[in-house]
Amino acid sequence: MVQPGRPSATAALAVAGASKSFGAVQALTDVTLEFRFGEVTALLGENGAGKSTLIRLCSGEHQPTAGAIFVDGKEHILPNPLAATNLGIAVVHQEPQLVSNMTVAENIFLARLGGRGAAAVHRSGALEREAKDLLREIGLADAFKDVSAKCSTLSAAERQLVEIARALAAKPKVLFLDEPNSSLTRRETDRLFGIVRLLRDQGVALVLVSHRLGEVYEVSDRVIVMRDGRKVGEGTVGELPKAQAIKLMAGDRLTQQVAEDDVSARQSDTMAPPVLKVRGATGIDFSDVDLDIRAGEIVGMAGLVGSGRTEIVRGVIGADPLFAGTIEINGRPVRLRSLREAVRHGISFISEERRTSVFYGHDVGFNLTSNVLDRFGSLGFFSQRKRMDFAQRHADAVGVKAESASTPIRALSGGNQQKVLLARALASNPKLLILDEPTRGVDVRTKAEMYALIRKLAYVDGLAVWFVSSEMDEILHLADRIVVVREGRIVDNIAKGPQAAQVVASALGEKVEDVEAFFDRQEHGPSH
After folding, report:
1. Which candidate, 439, 459, 462, 266, places its Cα nearest to that of 346?
2. Which among 97, 41, 50, 160 has a CA at the least distance from the CA of 440?
3. pLDDT in tens, 478-516
4. How many distinct structural domains can be found in the chain?
5. Is 35 within 8 Å of 72 (Cβ atoms)?
6. What's the pTM?
7. What CATH number is attached to the domain comprising 31?
């Protein structure tokens, strides 16, 4: 184990006695660790454990309050991200930081465009040729048929792959991957892990942050666990098995299996009229979709990235145009042309990309109430007190961990930001709640809390719930009924249970043994 001030010879990057405070908040305390050349290190911890703060210190975004950072055995002060980049340190962020109105090629080589004549590059086409060469080299050539496409047209998974390609374009010595597969299916994750293994074999030090522990342990050599801003565990994947890592992360033993409440036995009345009825819907990248969702029912939509799941949702709620078909809400025909119209008709939607949904410059109260501002005004007067009281009640109802509704949303962990978005969706008293990747990038504990909330909303409060997920365990565990999408069409509509497993596995590109393992966990609990 590395001693403070003495990184080992194999350390590409080391942190010695690092602490970081933000005012009265202590985010990191006396952290000493190292990331080694030719090794994949899993950096584990619940939301708020200090992982993101550590990454920001190592990449020059923040500077430590105390302690030192070593790169290639030499102590360095990293005053800004450019200094870290120049030393070979790169970060792939969980929420892709792309310029939407620029092309795939331009985003991959964004750092160099400011220093070169962009017009000359475009005339020669050199940038696009170089982008194609890089994508071919890292095994992503088939993911982008047109590198001149605007990033605004890409799916969340495709945007994540562009972010990864941009990091690799800098030929880093140390690469941090912060939830890189949170929007990827198993098949896309396998492709990513192939890139990770290739870079490891080339001597790059890789640091992987992910809450998908099963996948993390497949590709990692070593594990570091953080809790409450401290390093609480370290070892090889053999020395620190998953069950022990979960115990260290949470402070007490948690399992990945969410306990079923008594309310989970309550089933939707299949003879009741549907809250949502879709017939023959055709839109951008989907066609001839029929779908019913009833009160008290949780419907999960499965399919590979690019299968058309999100496009179906967006077409139904009016975010994208619907070319043909009919939609009924509680038996009444509607034609939705915007998200605002959807909200007025009792539909709430949470997007898969948290970064585009959160108002990061504002507090929890602003974010939670932004869709229902009309409730707090009367006769030309706006009551901020009523607004913040409303926000506090709804934040407490979904378990948001924040000092108050006045807390800046930037100060919250990703899981708590997701809960604020859920509270915002519920603030308008919807009849139908639609969630796109509802637990993307959240930790084991927060995922369990989200599942419990979703079940309560359906089984106790009687909401119709429709969610899209790329995680097979989540689909099989949470959904009462599973809708499988392939090439823009619904190809299966099946009840939850073992009989659905192979269909869902096929749709998500999973392995049959993974399906069998899932149901073994359901029957016997997780292995220790």
Report:
1. 462
2. 160
3. 999 999 898 899 988 888 765 556 666 656 555 545 555
4. 2
5. no
6. 0.60
7. 3.40.50.300
